[in-house]
Amino acid sequence: MGNNSYTQLASDLVGLVGGRDNIISVTNCMTRLRFVLKDENAAKTDEIKAIKDVKGVVRQGGQYQIIIGTHVNAVITDVRKEAGITEGEEKPDMKLLKEGNLFDRIFKIISGCIMPMIGVMVASGMIKGLLAVLTTAKVLEAADGTYLILYAAANSIMYFLPVIVGFNAGKVFGCNQFITAIIGASLIYPDILAAQTAGTALTFLKIPVTLINYSGSLLPVVAASWVASKIEKGAKKVVPQMLQLFFVPTIVLMITVPLSYLVIGPVMTYVSNCLSAGVMFIFNHVPVLGGVLFGAFWQLIVLLGLHSAFIPVLMNNLFTLGSDPVNAVLGLTVWALAGVSLGYALRTKDKEKKSLGFGNLVSCLFGITEPTIYSIALPNFKLFIAAFVGGGVGGGIMAGLGGRMYSFIGDGIFRFPAMINPKGLDISFYGFAVCAAISFVISAVLAFILAGEDTNKADGSK
C-alpha cells in the first residue's frame, strides 16, 4: 500500500472515530493505532471493522485500538495529520489513569512508563545475546575493551532504569520530567550504592535508612514520581509564579528523595518481591503446570487485555533475579501461532487465503502475532485451540527443563538471543529451540486438520 492509500485510510478512520474533535490523542504500538477518545460511543465500530485494511478493533485500558498491521508506523503519520495532532505535543492523558478500578489504573501507569523504551530494551537484549555468542565462541573475552564497551551499551538501560522510568513517569503523571528523572538518579547514586555494598549504616535526620540497591528497579521510582507530582502541584499553589522555576524543584526534591529512601523504596521493593514470589511459587513447585497454563493461554490473556497485570512481575523477575522462567515459556506461544499460520496456508485452496496464511507466518516469525489472531484464529476458534495445544505442550516441557530468559528482547526468531545464558549455552537455549519446534509442529498439524473442512467450504469445495 502506498502513502496515497494511507491518506485515504487516515481520513476514513478519523471520520469514523468521531472526527478530530473527538480525538484526545493517538499513538501506536507495533500493530495498533491507539486512540483516546472523548466519547468512544461516537466511534462507528462496525464500519471501521468493514474497512479492508483494518484487522480488528479492541477497546482496552481506556483506549480505542484499531489493529492495522506492521505498517502502522506509516499509517499513523497520516492519521496525525488528518487529526491535527503533532507528535510530541500530546499532553499526558490523565483520562487513562482515572478510568477503571484501582488495579487497572496501576497497570495503565506502569505500561505508560515502560512502553516508550521498549525498542531500546529490545536492542539491549539483542546486543547482550550477540556478546554471549561471541564469548561462547571465544571470539571475545569478558575483559576485552570491545566487550566492555558493547556491554556498557547493552546494560546501561538496566542499570540506569530508575532514571529512564522516572523521566517517563514524569510525563505520565504530568510532573516535571527532569525532576522525576533526578529522583530516579538519586536512588542509584554511587556513594549510597557503595555504602549499601559495604554494609554501612546510614541515617536521615537520625532516622535509620534501609539501604537497597535500586539499579534495575521499576516500582520504587514510579511510586516516587507519583508522590513528586502531588508535591509539585501543591508547591505551585503556594510559591509565587516568579519564583517557581527554582523553588518548586527544590521543594519537590528535598521532600521526595528522603521519602523514597525512608518509605517509598522499601515498601515498593517489598511489593515487587511479593508479586514475583506469587508467580514463582508455581514455577518452583509445579513448573510443568505453570508452563502448560502460560504456554497455552498467554495469547488469549493478551487478547483479553489481562496481560498488563503480569508486566511488573515479568520485569521484576528479569531485573532482580537476572533471568525469568515465565517469559521463557511465553515466547513459545508465538511459535504456536506461527504453526497455525502454516497449517492454515497449506490446507486452504484459495490463493488469497493461502497468501494470507504465509504472510502471517512471516509476521509471527518476526514476533508479530496479531495478524494471525485476528484474521485466522479468531474467525475459526478451532485454530486458536490448535495454538493452545501446541503452546501448552511446548510450555510444559520448557518449564520442566528449567529454561530461563536472560534479557528483554523481541519474539519469534529474535527470542533466541535472549535465551543465551551469559555463562554459556545451556538448556535454556537448546531447550527453547526444541520446544519452539514442538509448539510449531503440533500447532501446524492440528491447524491443517481442523482448518480443512471450513477452508474447503469457503473455497466452494464439496
Task: Describe what is shown at a glance.
The protein has 462 residues and is of the alpha+beta class. 66% of the residues lie in helices and 6% in strands.
Explain this structure to me?
There is one protein chain. The chain is globular. The C terminus is likely disordered. Strand 5 and strand 6 form a beta hairpin. The chain contains 19 helices and 6 strands. It has 462 residues and is α+β, with helices and mostly antiparallel strands. Helix content is 66%, strand content 6%. A 4-stranded antiparallel beta sheet has the order 1-2-4-3. A two-stranded antiparallel sheet has the order 5-6. It folds into 3 domains: 88 residues, Gyrase A, domain 2; 120 residues, no CATH class; 173 residues, no CATH class.
Keywords summarizing the entry:
462 residues; alpha+beta; Gyrase A, domain 2; 3 domains; 4-stranded antiparallel beta sheet; two-stranded antiparallel sheet; 19 helices; 6 strands; globular; disordered C terminus; transferase; sugar transport; membrane; kinase
